[in-house]
Amino acid sequence: MDAKQIKQLQPMLNKYLRQFDDCFGRIEPTERLKAYVTGQLSDLQRKSIEPMADAAGLPPRNLQQFLSLHKWDQMHMRDNLEQIVANEHQHPCSIGVFDETGHSKKGDKTPGVQRQWCGNTGKKDNCVVTVHLNYTAGNFHCLLDGELFLPESWSQDRDRCKAAGIPEQMTHCPKWQIALELWERAVANGVRFEWVGADEGYGKVPEFIFTLDDRGQRYVVEVPVIFTGWLVKPELLHKEHHHNRRGRKRRFPRLKAKSPSASSVKQLMLHSPVLRKIPWEKFHIKDTTKGPVVWEAKAARFYLKRDGLPRRMRWHRLGRDAS
Predict the structure, then answer these.
(1) Least enclosed by CB within 10 Å: which of 23, 30, 110, 202?
(2) Residue 321's pLDDT is what?
(3) Is residue 219 part of a domain?
(4) What mean pLDDT comes out for the span 206-228?
(5) In a domain, 299, yes or no
(6) Cα separation of 260 and 305, whole Å?
(7) Residue 10: its pLDDT value, please?
(8) Number of structural domains, the chain?
């Protein structure tokens, strides 16, 4: 985007940014925000403070103070953004995506930093991790919300948290719970997701999937092969038929006698005649320098085990590398 295009968009950009004026206590930060956003969208070779301030006709110190010293209501800004998306970008095929980002860091002072998996480097690294909720609808997409993942070692050391500026009320929370909190906030602000998606980092936790089920949210989630369930729904017994039975009262519903027990996805792949009858279908994923990447996939109905019983039917898709 060159300077001419930025200039043409400036009235629309200013109108958009004015929707966040009430997130600041004074007029000066709102003007600095315009300068900073315009600089980030420009064709400047270096998008650091000094060239962006020069392009906006501001002393560099003014823009530096905006980023380092000025305060704004981050929660109100996030709510404003989500309400704008809800009002202006509703879509019958809207998708929410849960994902996390790792940022490599040096030292041990950055909030939440420790040696952990870093997606950006593809290995365990000294980094901070943030969990995000992205929204896409047709050609529109944006980042709705994000939250720092605070490791347990940090959460247990409140002096360290205080020194790093971490609020007292912020404690360790598993990433899948953070993801659900982001979803709840977005929905409370009017955002509606036809589908949400997540990788195995979230799908490996059954409670994450069950919570989405309980809230009526449709999803596509990667799950591990150790998940257990049934390909054919077993019959259930809903009441006691022998009223003279002694001993502890049995819970209902329950599996009928001689019903098959739940099996892991891995075992079903190896031994289930139902799965063997379903043909594999090939999909060309992409071309690489080493040749095409091709996967084979098949889909089957699957009843995930929850509290010992089969629950809502899901489509379970299996895949393997066929390159």
Answers:
(1) 110
(2) 85
(3) no
(4) 93
(5) yes
(6) 12
(7) 83
(8) 3
